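Reposting from the mailing list since nobody answered there.

I have sequence plus structure tokens for a pair of proteins and want to know whether others read the tokens the same way I do. The first protein:
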Amino acid sequence: MRSLHKLFRSVVIFVVVALTVPCGSELLLSARSPRQSAAGQKGSGKGVVNWPRFRGPDCNPVSDHPRLPVRWSKTENIEWVADVPGVGWSSPVVWGKRIFMTAATSNQPMKQPMLGTDYSNDYLAELRAQGLSTEEINKRLYARDREMPHELEISLMLYCYDLESGKKLWERQVYHGNPHGGRHSKNSHASETPVTDGKRVYVYFTDYGLYAYDFSGKQVWAMALGRHETWRDWGTGASPALHGDRLFVQNDNEQQPFLAAFDTRTGKELWRKPRNLGASRKTGWSTPFVWENGLRTEVVTIGPGAAVSYGLDGNELWRMKRMAQGTVIQSPFAWNNLLFLTSGTPGESTRPIAAVRAGGSGDITPTEPDNRNEHVVWYDRLAGGTYLPTPVIYGNALYAVNDKGIISRHNAATGERAYRTRISAEASTFTASPWAYNGKVFVLSEEGDTFVVDATEEFKLLGVNPLGEFSMASPAIVGDRLLIRTQNHLYSIRNRR
């Protein structure tokens, strides 16, 4: 894989894993007050009991379980390894002893990802240097880096595994046929992470619909949803968010972006609100976040150019502009009664991180030079730009890692930066979001190496845990287990007793 990195250091593609992405709060504890940890069980020493959505119960993936593994490899601290058929970059979600994941399978070859986020742009530059016409350039670019509906048939799958053994308990085919839309080879047709409330697992394939299954694999309901064009056929990746008996989906597309709510019991659409954010590019891959902040419950979204918060009835509460205009993948999350917003790529002129207080209304955009106001605690126009990974907050510090392996640490309450550095000369391409526990921050590269960073004021790389398999999905943390999904496998990583 090292040689691949040098060969393919590479555009343009975002990688949603959603991205991609569910961030909300329902039956489990959420970021409601300073007394609660992001694991939902501060000081319990038992870690996180369930991992019901992308990035965990509060969309801030940390734990306090003392026996969680710090070191692993293919021969060390591996409890079990399960095969995962197909292509999918959704994260595993867990409730009780059940693990749920999605994937797209096909009897025909599916285009595979390369390392990094520049390989399409590099190829584009190469084609332009040959003096080819725009039509021919697009034809060749699509032939290599896109997978279009006429090229193959797929099956969209939901898998259920046993947490203790890794045995596949059942699988369900949600859809079979030609894809409804195209995808970039770095994306998948199954990048949206499912969400569960402990009674049902809710599966969202943006171009297809919403589906509910019980834990035995019986479909409870299905709600078909129409397809919408995405920017240059990059595909989809925003995951659903869950609150009580409502599911929220954010579909930022090139035709008509919207936020919609659905009844978890029946799949009935409760409301749909068009989103007009003002940016020329409308497509986004950010997952909405349900923020229970002590004053009220809000559905917070990030799209091209702006962050917008809605009430549970779909009415807009506030919006903050001065967000990235281009690629928006990172998702909102909360800590200590503050909301954190970030978006953009390393090359964008506006790529902020912002901390927001509850209670805002109307336009809360901060202005220069103060970059703060009654509702915005701090705003740093250049602190974000992680492209793919969403930051993590651990021990009062915010850690942001970009797709090229640059890590920064900020005081979460003030925004003050402690350091910004490259993780390692070997740390080159990143999609998964970082996570933290036991005084350490963990960062998984696309090459399957997890870099272990000391969670202190000064940067210190403690070690590297290799798996040697292509990896883009953000992991799950349950009890004393770490679950990492690679291109073809699911690993349960656990200290040997």
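The second protein, same order (residues first, tokens after):
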Amino acid sequence: MAPQNQASEFLVVEKPVPSPLSNSEIILSGFLMICFILAPLVILFAYWPDKIEKGSYNVYYNEPFSIRLVDSDSNSKKSDTLIAAVKLKKTPEKKGGDTNKQPTTPPATTGEVKQGNTPGGGSGNSAQNDPVANLVVQEQMVDSHRTDTSKINTSLPDSNAKNKKNIALDKNGNPDTISLNSLILILVAAAGFLGNMIYVVKSFTAFVGIGTFNKQWILWYVLKPFSAVGLAIVIYFVLNNSDDVLTKGVNLNGIVGVAALTGLFTDMAMVKLKDIFEVIVKPNEDKTLTKHSKAVLKIDLENIKPATIDVAQPFEVSIPGENLNAAKLVIVFNGVEITNAIITSKLIKFNYEVPVVDRGKTEFALQIKNEAGDELVDTNIGVLL
């Protein structure tokens, strides 16, 4: 039961014993609630992506407060260069090694690419047109500058140089990335927590302010936001399809907004989920149960209202009973079939106005029949004199 019903809950107790918070407990509670409101806000800012591309599988660099989309194929070469430079800069030096020692002489195949020593006695310019020779030269340059990363850093394009410090690497030296689906789940959880914290703060301050807060509700206040996180994620799974990222794109603002509202109005969200679940898993009608329900259909003739009718005014007829909606019923009043009757399991009701030509009658007939035409009720209602 939610705290908003807290006062009514105590009304059934003979003497409710309030247990208000002390001033220090109120201050501590307020500080904690401020922290728990700021925490999801920080997460939302930290993991909000810079952009979402429609029609592609979005992958981002996992850098909080700088969630950037991994470059497309047109920029992949620049990204690979930047990643290679960062890897090279983080390569550990061997213990006991001489940092000033020149690299060892490369194999004979490496030496052959130098000018004057190319295969066949050609000049060094022919190596520039040989892809294999170019690759060997590049590997030799990387080895020779392994202890001097400044040369490699200066060779990076200016557009990448400012971002090289922002690329995180995992323990294997590969770029640390995160998918869009994972980002959305993080944002949905944070938004659900934030929305419920707004409700919790409102409820807490209201009960503390009027002096009716009871410490027995502390556990409810602690667990409520976490249950809202789970509910927000369930609502996201029910209302969204992860495959829409590739076809329709993602309305991230809408998704996060719904998650926050789910946390703020958890009771309404639970009702909505209940409605959806009932539609999905609605059981087939049990014919055996239907027959049994027809057999126990009961109409309470003694409590039909009104007991008497004022023919000069429109009135409402209510007929109580049990299992009244188990079968189709035909209601006839004053010789006219009633088509606008509202029938529930416990009550039949309809509105009626006596025609002028019938206002001289002293009683009106009420009949109720089943679909087969069997008469279940045949009674008369008198006129108010």
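Reply #1 (J.P.):
I read it the same way you do. The first strand starts at residue 59 and ends at 61.
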